Amino acid sequence: MADIPLLVVSENSSAERRITPSWSISTLKAKLETVTGIPPSAQRILLKTAAEGSIPVEASDEDSTNLTAFRLIAYAELHVLDKRPPGARPNYTDASGVDKYVMPEEEYAKKTDSVLAWKKAEKLGRFDPNAPSREEGKIAAFAQEVRSRSIEAGKRCRVGGDDMRRGTVMYVGDVKEIPNGSGAWIGVQLDEPVGKNDGSVNGARYWGEPSDMKHGVFVRPERVEIGDFPAMDDLGDMEEI
């Protein structure tokens, strides 16, 4: 009898294999171990066909029961299940414990056929003498964000998407008093005293008068949403007071 192509499917593999109907179930399981990694004693095999659904491939005497006892159809699926507890199964997808070769940076830098060598030759990225520095790129990105969001002093806004943090843009620009804070900052006078300051930072005043009420906040442009955000009226929906 001619071999029959079947699709062997397991938790960690899927492959087409030609099955000889004269094999015993024991022979089949031994051959499937090399495909699935599941020992014969832990295998439970299901033959899946469109007409008959799932058929267990098993017998009381698997050494003498041949596969001719089952209706093998070309390209039917042979599902191989692992009966072992999950903790006892090898994890073939976890490569964290596999030793990997990592080329030292000094050795990689000496190679002439690497991506790094190509970038150097073409003067791309950080090898471009005219490319802006990382700091310059960050400043330019903040400036572009200000333009794209149409952020200007005097406009109404909302900070961080929070309706309780509505207010008016009071300042757009550098704030030298903020450590490592190069690039544009947006100073907002919040309607409610839920800010961080009164319009000043470390003694430098950017708007308003000194106050114990913290209506002021400085944020990056991406946190500011310009729009029609009138002051919240907490009593607007009350019928009586």
UniProtKB/TrEMBL annotation:
Keyword Cytoplasm: yes
Domain of life: Eukaryota
SUPFAM superfamilies: Cap-Gly domain (SSF74924), Ubiquitin-like (SSF54236)
Location of the CAP-Gly domain: 176-220
Domain (Ubiquitin-like): residue spans on this chain: 2-53
Keyword set, alphabetical order: Chaperone, Cytoplasm
A GO BP annotation: cytoplasmic microtubule organization
Principal subcellular localisation of the protein: cytoplasm
Gene3D superfamilies registered for this protein in UniProt: CAP Gly-rich-like domain, Phosphatidylinositol 3-kinase Catalytic Subunit, Chain A, domain 1
A GO cellular component entry from the record: nucleus
Subcellular location: Cytoplasm
Any GO molecular function: microtubule plus-end binding
Family from the record: Belongs to the TBCB family.
Name of the protein in its database record: Putative cap-gly domain-containing protein
